[in-house]
Amino acid sequence: MTLARRHPVIVISVITAVVMITGTSAWAVSYDDKASKKMLPETIVGGVPVGGLRYEGALGAVRTSIEDPLRRPINVKAGEQFATKTTAWDLGLRVDVDKAVRSAMKRSNDGNLVQRVWRRVFGGGGPNVAVAPEWGDGDVSSLLDQATKSVNLAPTNAKVDISSGWVSVVPPKTGRELDVDASRAAVVDGAKAGAPSVDLVTKTLEPQVGVAAVEKVILVRTGENMLYLYEKGRIAKSWPVATGEAKFATPPGIWRINSKLVNPTWTNPRSAWSASMPATIGPGPNNPLGTKALALNASGILIHATSDTSSIGYSASHGCIRMTEADEADLFGRVDAGTTVAIVSAGPAKPRSTKPAPAATPDAAAVTQF
Question: What DSSP character marks residue 136?
Fold first, then answer.
């Protein structure tokens, strides 16, 4: 007797179970195939919920939330000298959204058929994929190089202009410089924070020679044989002087007072005209430098007192600038070491022809140790 005849209910049950299992299996395979095109429920990519979305939908959602902000314009400027637009993306702050979404899709389809179907039917188990922008190659250095070219300006020192034969004080100007390190930090921080604008950092450069350095200026006009003292750009006082004769011309140019000398010692330069003179002449009535002298940074040139007052007003010296004792003392008390001395060849030289200087008289221009 067959099983079907003895236990008809059992047979029917087995057949029904086989049919159900076969049908369920086929359904599960079909369901898994369709569902594999979508993210698991509760899937998160970069903080963006993408559960149930297809790859393209998830990609768009994550790009809108994470990538698009990196492509928004950032206004970068440095005062009035430099302005440009860029983006965090162009600066090098990038994110690989494709990679993150692909990873989430792969993890949504991990496991065997039963596990995948179970998660999709009953929920839970969706992956959480972290996404954070990272710095790569970008335009930060190039942007800062462009800004540097536009911003950097060297300071201008105060100076004396004697092109007219008189003194004109050109005031100093501050410069500026891009602080590259601080500006780089500002750009990077602004890009990370999603700031709409970034101000680059500049610093002021002070001139080495300020207006105080030319507050007082001595002008010597050799053709006129006059010395002028300028204070704050205006002539404060003037004195007649003697300057160099033609073959020992007082050197034109812009010089400075190196030192102020009281009771200086004259030293013989061993020139032809001073061959018969002593090696030195110390302080006293016979010293050709007088009691006070201003030594310039022009070799051997001084502004000094002289007892040969008849030479004043003439081109009679060996290069130095002579003054009377009283005038030298007056000037000496008004200026300091470092004062600018401008010498110009203004007007025709006036040689002393009526009363030539004694050949044996040494001249301050010979004091070469100054």
Answer: -
Query: Catalytic: 336?
Result: no
Helices of type H across the chain: 3-6, 8-35, 55-62, 88-91, 97-108, 113-122, 140-151, 180-193, 325-332
Tens-digit pLDDT profile for residues 61-112: 999 999 999 999 999 999 999 999 999 999 999 999 999 999 999 998 887 7
Token readout for 289 is 């430098």
CA pair distance 78, 142, nearest whole angstrom: 15
Q: Identify whether the C-beta of residue 119 lies closer than 8 Å to the C-beta of residue 125.
A: yes
Domain 215-366 has CATH 2.40.50.430: no
Catalytic entry in 58, 320, 342, 344: 320
* Those residues with Cβ within 8 angstroms of residue 177's Cβ, 6 or more apart along the chain or in another chain: 151, 152, 153, 202, 203, 205
Are 3 and 11 spatial neighbours (Cβ–Cβ below 8 Å)? yes
Q: How many residues does the chain have?
A: 370
pLDDT in tens, 249-287: 999 999 999 999 998 887 777 777 677 777 778 777 777
What is the spatial order of strands in the sheet that 44-45 belongs to? 48-49, 44-45, 128-129
Q: Tell me which long-range contacts 3-12 makes (C-beta under 8 A, separation of at least 24).
A: none
pTM above 0.85, yes or no: no
Residue 320 falls in the annotated catalytic set = yes
> In the structure, how many helices (H) and strands (E) does the chain have?
9, 24
Which residue among the candidates 216, 304, 318, 322 is catalytic per the annotation? 304
The pLDDT confidence band at residue 14, using thresholds 50, 70 and 90, is very low
Tell me the pLDDT band of 36, cut-offs 50, 70 and 90: confident
- Please state, in angstroms and rounded to a whole number, the distance separating the CA atoms of residues 128 and 149: 47
Tell me: pLDDT of 16 over 60. no
Q: What angle do CA 223, 229, 235 make, to 5 degrees?
A: 95
Find out whether 35 and 18 touch, Cβ atoms under 8 Å: no
